[in-house]
Amino acid sequence: MLFKTAKRIMDIVLSAIGLIILSPFYLLLIIAIKIDSRGPILFRQKRIGQGKIHFNILKFRTMRIDTPKDTPTHLLKDPDQYITRVGKFMRKTSLDELPQIWNILIGDMSIIGPRPALWNQYDLIKERDKYHANDVRPGLTGWAQINGRDELPIDIKAKLDGEYIKKMGVFMDIKCFFGTFISVAKSDGVVEGNQTYQEKKETSKK
After folding, report:
1. Are strands 54-60 and 42-48 parallel, antiparallel or unpaired?
2. Are residues 85 and 34 in contact, defined by beta-carbon separation less than 8 angstroms?
3. What is the DSSP secondary structure assignment for residue 111, as one 8-state letter?
4. Chain mean pLDDT for the chain
5. Is the separation of the CB atoms in 110 and 104 below 8 Å?
6. ∠81-85-91 over CA atoms, to 5°?
7. CB atoms within 10 A of CB 118
8. Tens digits of residue pLDDT in 49-88
9. What is the mean pLDDT of each run of 10 residues along the chain (206 residues)?
10. Helix segments in the chain, DSSP class H
C-alpha cells in the first residue's frame, strides 16, 4: 500500500514537471503535425484502464484521418499508406506517446505499468485477468514494452505483465524506466503491418 501511494505521488510530480519542461517541444510537434497533414493534433482511443474501466488514451496523431479505427497498426495490411511523414518519425521515437503524460497526471495511467489494451482486444484482456494485470493502472511503459513490444504473442505479453505485477516495486519500476530509453533508441519490437510482423516471426524461428 505504501509503495502504491508513493508511486501515485511520483506519477503526479513527474508528469506535472514533464508537461512544463516539454511544453516548447510539444509546440514544435503540434506545428509539424498541422503542416504535414489535415486533421486533429491529438488522437483519442478507447482503452482498458484499472479495473477494466474504459478511458480515452491521448496520442499525437501519426496517421491519416481515413485510417480504420480501433485496429492495431501491426494488424493493418499496409500501414505505410496511412502513416504520415511526421507520424513515421514520431512512432519510431515514441514521441507520439507524449500526450499520455496528461493521462498520468489525471490518474488514468501510471508512468510504469502494463500498456493499456484496446477496448476490443478481448484475448489480451482475458489473458491478463489470469495475472491480475487488469487490476493496476496501465502504464506509459512497462516490463513487456522493454521485452518485445509489438512482436510479443498475446500469451507472452500477458505473462510478462504478470511478472511485473509479482515484482512490482521501486527496483522494478526503475528497471522498466531506464530500459525504455534503451528500447526506444534501438526501436526494439516496433512492428508496422502484418507483413513485417510475419517476417519477424519467421526470422525468430531460424
Report:
1. antiparallel
2. no
3. E
4. 87
5. yes
6. 90
7. 16
8. 999 999 999 999 999 888 777 676 766 777 788 899 999 9
9. 91 96 95 94 94 96 83 72 91 92 97 94 95 96 86 91 94 93 71 46 38
10. 2-36, 85-93, 100-105, 122-129, 154-167, 170-186, 194-205
Residues 6+ apart with CB under 8 A from 77: 193, 194
Distance CA 83, CA 190 (A): 14
Cβ neighbours, 10 Å, residue 136: 21
CA dist 180 and 119 (Å) reads 24
Q: Which of 192, 132, 189 is nearest to 158 (CA)?
A: 132
Q: Cell numbers at residue 42, please?
A: 491529438
**138 grid coordinates:** 496501465
Which cell is 65 given? 484521418
C-alpha separations of 79 from 29, 121, 153, 163 in Å: 21, 19, 20, 31
3-state secondary structure of 54: strand
